[in-house]
Design goal:
By secondary structure, this protein is mainly α. It has one domain. It has 12 helices and no strands. Helix 1 (2-23) packs across helix 10 (233-240), helix 2 crosses helix 9 (207-230) and helix 4 (89-96) packs parallel to helix 7. The longest helix has 25 residues, at 62-86. It is globular. Belongs to the EamA transporter family. Residues 5-132, 146-277 form the EamA domain.
Length: 279
């Protein structure tokens, strides 16, 4: 069950990253985040209130972990959406997925013992990320190197966020999701208000897309939170990091993106590494 939910999270995250990156080419990333997160927070509050969970959240250590997850998520998404808007999605997404190495290493430090294949898989994923990013950091790169650096920053923050969410979900999945979402809403809305000069407002026609974006991210986060509560964080986090495959396929289908041969091989290494880690 945990493996299936982690894979579902990867499909949902890959779809939301493609959608968010596409919308961020027309709207500012902070606008996309602010509106989509407010809408998803309202959906989450409605679900928790309707199921009766809102009034009986347990006491425990989930609050601090959830706030940390919300802060790092907001920073990671701002970096990721900006990178997706500036650079090639098929390059940015695999780099950002390298954040899986943070919870993988943390799980090992806390006593989890994946097999030799898992360790080999993590190493292959790291090599693949270097291979994807390398050509984009060269002086002859066609896209801004800032997109790669932003993707690397997103990877680090995502890794911390995934680990923090997993730890908080051990006490309460519902509480962790709510506190994380509310924290991220406060941060991205504040950033949107502070940087509103020089940008047009979000149009009514954008709301359905932003609602879909927020819902996809919320559903993916919920699937991962439940999966991490019933499986090893080191393994679940790697399975959930398969989302670049979805983003790459969607970018190829709808944006006509193409990668170099080296980058195609490198993306495959990232994905093979993730599978090996799960095995």
């Amino acid at each position: 069950m945990s493996a299936g939910l982690a894979l579902l999270a990867s499909v949902l995250w890959g779809s939301s990253d493609f959608l968010g990156g596409s919308v961020s080419r027309r709207l500012r990333a902070v606008q996309v985040l602010a509106v989509s997160q407010v809408l998803s927070a309202l959906v989450l509050l409605a679900v928790l209130a309707g199921s009766g969970q809102l009034g009986r959240l347990p006491a425990g250590g989930w609050l601090g972990w959830s706030v940390l997850a919300g802060v790092t998520w907001a920073g990671a998404m701002a970096a990721l959406y900006t990178a997706l808007a500036r650079g090639t999605m098929g390059v940015v997404a695999p780099i950002a997925s390298c954040g899986m190495l943070v919870p993988f290493a943390a799980g090992l430090a806390l006593g989890e013992r994946p097999g030799a294949l898992a360790v080999l898989g993590a190493a292959l994923a790291l090599v693949g990320v270097v291979g994807v990013a390398g050509p984009e950091l060269s002086p002859t790169a066609k896209q801004p190197s800032s997109a790669v650096w932003l993707a690397l920053l997103a990877a680090l923050l995502f890794g911390v966020e995934i680990f923090a969410l997993a730890r908080g979900s051990e006490s309460s999945v519902a509480g962790s999701l709510l506190a994380m979402r509310l924290t991220s809403v406060v941060l991205v809305v504040a950033a949107a208000v502070a940087g509103r000069r020089g940008s047009g407002p979000v149009q009514a026609r954008d709301l359905p897309v932003l609602l879909a974006l927020g819902f996809l991210d919320l559903a993916a986060t919920a699937a991962f939170a439940v999966a991490s509560g019933s499986g090893m964080v080191s393994v679940v986090s790697v399975l959930a990091s398969l989302y670049p495959a979805v983003t790459v396929l969607l970018a190829r289908r709808f944006h006509g993106e193409r990668l170099t041969r080296v980058q195609v091989v490198a993306v495959c290494l990232v994905l093979v590494g993730a599978v090996l880690t799960a095995l």
